[in-house]
């Protein structure tokens, strides 16, 4: 019997023949069929690789792609925050300013866990845009280092107002710490934009990580280190922000507008039952311009009794501690209850607005 020419058969036909052939009687034919199937499979892989084109090297990611991935992750975090807020509204309201710590922990784990070895170095936003966090050798970060990297990135946004919650802290210390955290945010974005050699930001450099474009090609990290001048800028910025915070809290600063707002905020935060406060000076555009509206927003517990009396007390402190309060067209005290965890918030407010003269009349015994 003539030997069949298996080169003329298709892959499916060869598989059918291999399934029904008598391997004991024709072992040499079985070997030939299997060799032919292996050759066809290899040819298919070569064609697929040729169609896909050459593998591009894995280089550091550009700034806009990283920002895009962050925006996607921010949307996902916001959805998580809405769910947490709906399920734990009362508990979060009871936390006051410490609710930001809850958001900080959620965000740190959201970024840290998937960007570690556990998640392959990719958050959801990075997966969508084809990015990955790696070490210089190409491996993923250990969980602890990934969490530290995420914490440095998140701390300024979530915790910058937290020092003011420590009423035992010296006003200078609280202001200096708050501004120092703002300085961390500045350094993160400064390095992201201007460290063009390695595209490593502050949180990347802290753990020795790179953010790369995830491709099939070989790893191609920058060989040059970041410019040393960036280190000087970062150090000067952190010191400068901290010193500015201390300077704004000095006793003489209450005589200028910004220092006066910090002073009012500090004394309002010392009131029992007030868990947060913001002070702003704005302009009444319909009254010839100029900053002539003083707004004090105090976060209080929902069970706070006699809110009107509390509003009068806050107005009294504002008039006493803001140098230009007498020249204001109106002073507004807003009592707010709710929560803010950074990735979600819920507020209910009640406004009390009077001229400085009307407030003084209301404060008469």
TrEMBL record:
<feature type="transmembrane region" description="Helical">
    <location>
        <begin position="67"/>
        <end position="88"/>
    </location>
</feature>
<keyword id="KW-0472">Membrane</keyword>
<feature type="transmembrane region" description="Helical">
    <location>
        <begin position="95"/>
        <end position="112"/>
    </location>
</feature>
<keyword id="KW-1003">Cell membrane</keyword>
<protein>
    <submittedName>
        <fullName>RDD family protein</fullName>
    </submittedName>
</protein>
<dbReference type="InterPro" id="IPR051791">
    <property type="entry name" value="Pra-immunoreactive"/>
</dbReference>
<feature type="transmembrane region" description="Helical">
    <location>
        <begin position="146"/>
        <end position="166"/>
    </location>
</feature>
<dbReference type="Pfam" id="PF06271">
    <property type="entry name" value="RDD"/>
</dbReference>
<keyword id="KW-0812">Transmembrane</keyword>
<feature type="transmembrane region" description="Helical">
    <location>
        <begin position="172"/>
        <end position="193"/>
    </location>
</feature>
<feature type="domain" description="RDD">
    <location>
        <begin position="60"/>
        <end position="207"/>
    </location>
</feature>
<keyword id="KW-1133">Transmembrane helix</keyword>
<dbReference type="InterPro" id="IPR010432">
    <property type="entry name" value="RDD"/>
</dbReference>
<feature type="transmembrane region" description="Helical">
    <location>
        <begin position="230"/>
        <end position="249"/>
    </location>
</feature>
